[in-house]
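Quick one, T. Sequence first:
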Amino acid sequence: MQIPESDILTTNRLGRIFSNTVATYKFFWFVSIMQIHAKNDNPRISVWDIVIRMVANAWYPIHYFRLSFGKSDSLFDIVMELQRITQIPIDANAETIIASLTERMNDRQIKKLLNTLTLNVPYRFLRPWIDTSDDKLLMARSQTLENGCLYSLYKEGSDFYIIMNAAWDTYLHAHYNILVDFAYWNLTLFLQTRNPNVPAIPNKLIRPDVRNSLTKQHNYWDMVMKLGMQINCIYTDNPIHPGDYALDHFIPWSFVSHDLIWNLIPSDGSINSSKNNKLPDLDVYLPKLAKLQHKALQVVVNANKKPTSLEDFVSLGYTPRELADMDSEHFLELYERTFNPISQIALNMGFETWKY
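Structure tokens:
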């Protein structure tokens, strides 16, 4: 992915900001600067404000999706420890996290953890423009805006801040979306090598404001029941009735990051809070899931109904008709081949096993 060119700026150095990156700091540093700059006319930005926003931006992929940032990345450990200290919910939005951490900056534990993020990345980020490993020298040279660097660095006692280079102002505002996408695209490539078996990494980097509606999936299961199939919750064995049930992601959405119908089943609403983002015990529940899904599919296909949800089954490698015509043993084997490796990867990432 290339960044936009400029008639008045040399952008090739900006395009190299993520070269030779061994940790996630630079990605979150740049995105955080872009977000603050977009909302603020003041070219002076506190380094503390940037690192707090870095934590907020890294919060969701670390806590909710449990993505690995690599063994040499202290941002992961800092975010985990800050959540332990503050008890900020793991699915809190960025503004809530920023407000909470900002209010508690006098807490010595919190300040110490955040301080770690100020030690290297403000300097290392400028290396494409100023090639020196001497932080004091880099700071001095940044204040001359050498090679048109993105910002200058200043440290006066505990007052640590950057001043954005005014020459970049219009460019950063005009290409905000592309530049942030450029950062997240590079972050995706970085994380894919450290999470090779984790699905849908691009969907796990930013907390969505609103989750996708499950109307289509509810319509599918309502149809199944209206066609005469009696459904009992695979967890509680309580009967399920049309329009009066919860839809459960068998493998949590926080791992699979999709709403495909073969992973969604009607469930007793009473189990939602206890199951939450945990993995169901496959020995107990996978045979029940496969039996329910197979019978429901047969009911829909044999009734010659064609809801759009049926298309989801194609991702299992078979047409809905082929799946409906399978005997129960082979259908269970397919579900075992599908769910066992997914569950094992999730367990390796720290997801807990659950049984009602």
